Structure formats: C-alpha cells, structure tokens
Amino acid sequence: MADTEVKNNDTEKETVNSTVSSDTKTSSISSKDLTPVISVNNVIEDRRSTIPSTTININIPRQEIKYSVEELIKNSKALTGHKREVAVGALFDCQEKELTKDDFKKAIEVFLKRKVK
C-alpha cells in the first residue's frame, strides 16, 4: 500500500510539472512565425550603426561677468589670496571701471612680477 501512495505522489508531481510547462508555452503564436532576438541592446546597436550620424560643433562665446573695481578690491583676498593693498596698487592706473575676475587676476600677477626701481 505504501508503494501505491508513493506512485500516486509521483504522478501528482508529474502533472504539476506538466501544467507549469504548458503555461509557459504560447498557443496562439507558432514558433515558425517568430524570429529569435538575442538581446534588445544588440538590436538597438544595430539600428544605430545603420543610421548616419552627424556631429555639429557650436561655439558659443562664454559671457563673462564684469564686476566693479571697488567690489574686486573688497574681495581681493578671497579671489586672489593677496591683500587689498596689492589690488589697489595693481589697479592704480587702470582706466576701466569694471573688470572680469580673470582680468583682475592677470593685473595683480603683472603687478607682482614688476621689477622695483
């Protein structure tokens, strides 16, 4: 009797496995109609390679902000690491009322590299 119960349990397992495998199959579409796709990424890369690509380089001039000379002198320690006196000396003969940060830093570098007479 124990042998028949074991056989019954084994047949139940087989039927469960067969129902699972039948659920995964699609009955409405035949396998002949489908074309196998290995990976979606491969398909996308194939399409990208067939599409001609063009590169457009656009040079947009960078608009630099100009600051007043007074503001640059007040913040010279933070901008250049030098004291205000150095900034005043560098901009002593400066005719412009506004400068960019880069122009301000260059003026200070030139001032510090001058030879003293």
Question: Which labels suit this protein?
Answer:
single chain, 117 residues, mainly alpha, two-stranded antiparallel ribbon, 6 helices, 56% helix, 3% strand
Question: Could you please describe the fold and organization of this structure?
Answer:
With 117 residues, this protein is mainly α. The protein contains six helices and two strands. Strands 1-2 form a two-stranded antiparallel sheet. Helix 5 crosses helix 6. It starts with a helix and ends with a helix. This is YqzN/YkzM domain-containing protein. Residues 1-15 have a biased composition (Basic and acidic residues).
Order of helix and strand elements from N to C terminus = HHEHHHEH
Report Rg.
40 Å
Return the structural class.
mainly alpha
Question: Strands of the biggest beta sheet: in what spatial order?
Answer: 1-2
Mean pLDDT across residues? 75
Uncertain residue ranges: 16-26
Helical run tally: 6
> What's the number of extended β-strand segments?
2
- Judging from the principal axes of the Cα atoms, what is the shape? rod-shaped
Strand content is under 5%
Note the gap between the termini. 119 Å
